[in-house]
Amino acid sequence: MDEMSKTSRRAFLRGSAAVAAGTAAGTVSAQTPDPAITELQDWASYLGAGVDETPYGLPISFESDVIRRNVEWLTASPISSINFTPIHALEGTITPQGCAFERHHSGAIELHKDDYRLMINGLVERPLVFTYEDLERLPRENHVYFCECAANTGMEWAGAQLNGVQFTHGMIHNMEYTGVPLRTLLKEAGADISLDKWVYVEGADASSNGRSIPMEKALDDVLVAFKANGEALRMEHGYPVRLVVPGWEGNLWVKWLRRIEITDRAVESREETSKYTDVYEDGVARKWTWVMDAKSVITSPSPQMPITHGAGPMVISGLAWSGHGQITRVDVSKDGGITWETARLGKQGDTKALTRFYLDTEWDGAPMLLQARAMDDTGYVQPTKEQLREQRGENAVYHNNCIQTWYVDVEGKAENVEVS
Amino acid sequence: MDEMSKTSRRAFLRGSAAVAAGTAAGTVSAQTPDPAITELQDWASYLGAGVDETPYGLPISFESDVIRRNVEWLTASPISSINFTPIHALEGTITPQGCAFERHHSGAIELHKDDYRLMINGLVERPLVFTYEDLERLPRENHVYFCECAANTGMEWAGAQLNGVQFTHGMIHNMEYTGVPLRTLLKEAGADISLDKWVYVEGADASSNGRSIPMEKALDDVLVAFKANGEALRMEHGYPVRLVVPGWEGNLWVKWLRRIEITDRAVESREETSKYTDVYEDGVARKWTWVMDAKSVITSPSPQMPITHGAGPMVISGLAWSGHGQITRVDVSKDGGITWETARLGKQGDTKALTRFYLDTEWDGAPMLLQARAMDDTGYVQPTKEQLREQRGENAVYHNNCIQTWYVDVEGKAENVEVS
């Protein structure tokens, strides 16, 4: 179906009607009990592994393909690159740290808690250096937030590029963070918190990855975090301390956080001028594009998760999120955006966190052009790629939150396509 | 302080007043910047690990003590034993699967998804056998729930036994589960769902661990679950499918679930007669004690997490939960239950899930008898050990949800004690 990689909804409908005519809907294929089945039940004939064998457990060997994957041609070196969360194989909303995507600018460093220091300087009454233990003595909070790289789905601006939701949308994870509100540290140092001031943050790694945050956000919900999903941050996520900037692009979530400087203007660092801006057709840069707009994607079926059971009952499942707040509704289309059905949302999540959606449906065995479209509590509706290109032009790299399309063929195989 | 292992609040107060007189409250000890610090910041002088090095990541080596631990003298063999979640070192509410406690009756078995079968029989119109794929085709839900072993804190009935919250309260974990409601499977099979009927569930391991569940609960919130914290269940937690019975004792959460039988009375299996009942003083057994009552415990400071920073600002942090619903309030006492302060709750969690609480306070450097007391939305208040012993006698093994006491000495070391 290579010719589908750019096709029209009209042509798709002509084709699918012809196939559907020959296919009947089925039911879940649970069988009546067969005595032969008992032969398989031999796990009761041996004793299993004891509680002393796995002080820290790993996934069972059968799940060894559920891992982060990088794309080798994407960058010159893995120390300045990205890998991808296997979102095609995950369910619910929490991302385990072990398979949550990584993005490094100069590799993941090994920094012991005892050596950790965090300096606050600049426009403060009292420049301070905090140890890790100092941070643990301050009032802390825990919240679930998503972290999305600004470049997530970026390769899709040019068309349907990568055949797998792990690669098109896997620069995202969603964890429960524990940390001290940044505003608490600003207060401890007697920072000038006038709303025209900025907070410059940098990491202890070679890249330093410095970014400027406007004071209003710094005083709102930013956390200086030291735990994720209950346990210490992993080395690759900034152990022992990273910044959590809810709803804002991942590049601001500085890892191995070492310095916070209060300034009277944005630093305009390398990371916010040479990158993380969107260049319009006329060459003007769209700047300070921090917030990740509402977005959704179907994770199953998807190119890595074909339908294997034939026609009949099935669940279409996916993820939705918004950097502006909560997801209020997700619609799913099977015909490339002509008709839509409202999906069922999993439990109402925290604000700026992943929401799981489900469409419990019947597959008639005909091809589908699957799409999901998210709405958030600001009233914003996730745009089509055409709409986004009209606004942003063709030069964009970052902040692609457009509707994604999977073409599902009569065998249940799914492919990344673009419809017009 | 061995003599404190059983002491009175009155004696404690006499002692602590004397010490407190000599100690002044401090502040968080963040320092003004010292040029020498920059010498430590050498992580910027090398390149770190690349994104191709950890397809599935593990905790950093510095955190290698944050692991499940078993108590060797507790059982004859590790294949029929327990290990403990390191709750002293965790924060927030989510438990990573890798360090979530295990309890096996005949060891953890290795059962491939392709070999998995789930039978429903007994009082049904259509006995059925489901494959793993069949389950994935049915509407599913995701919820965070705690799972607590009925024996959690059981060794403490007799007095202050184990010096560490990991060992006294670590038979608990809290994960986000994805699964199919049990009621959906009952409907598929045309089960008799009259409220006087029972659902008998058993696992594929050698113990089979059969348990009877009353129909009312089976129709309520029980899940046939296949994911935890987003990814597949770990082998030791029942891969590929386990039962999730929210708020009820962990023994009912049958792992490697292989059979569901609808019966007209409870089976009275080995697991619900020889064990998991509470024997009163007069020899009568308290039976069908499924629900885990409201409970809380301070995780830091605790014997494994002493105060190391001296007097001044500090956070007292812990966990609270109730099998009946939501935690509405947690109080903390520093004097063994004479006076109480209301703690700050972390984000309001799901029902039947762990809630994190914090008391942001000042330590004056004097000894403390730390306690936490939880309340839930039924109005229930967590009892003292005296109150619980009055109700249940001295023979009990299971369902100890009493208030726990840590004695903190002037050096900040904490010890498991009992007050009267």
UniProtKB/TrEMBL annotation, chains A, B:
| Descriptive protein name | TMAO/DMSO reductase
NCBIfam families linked to this entry: sulfite_DH_soxC (TIGR04555)
Write out the GO biological process terms.
Answer: sulfur compound metabolic process
Q: Which cofactor does it need?
A: Mo-molybdopterin
* Location of the Moybdenum cofactor oxidoreductase dimerisation domain: 286-404
Has the keyword Ubl conjugation been applied to this entry?
no
**Annotated organism of origin:** Nereida ignava
Locate the transmembrane regions by residue number: none
Boundaries of every Oxidoreductase molybdopterin-binding domain copy: 111-268
The molecular function terms in GO held by this entry are: heme binding; molybdenum ion binding; molybdopterin cofactor binding; sulfite oxidase activity
* Matches recorded under PROSITE patterns: TAT
For this UniProt entry, which residues form the secretion signal?
1-30
Instruction: Write out the entry's keywords from A to Z.
Output: Metal-binding, Molybdenum, Oxidoreductase, Signal
State the source organism's domain of life: Bacteria
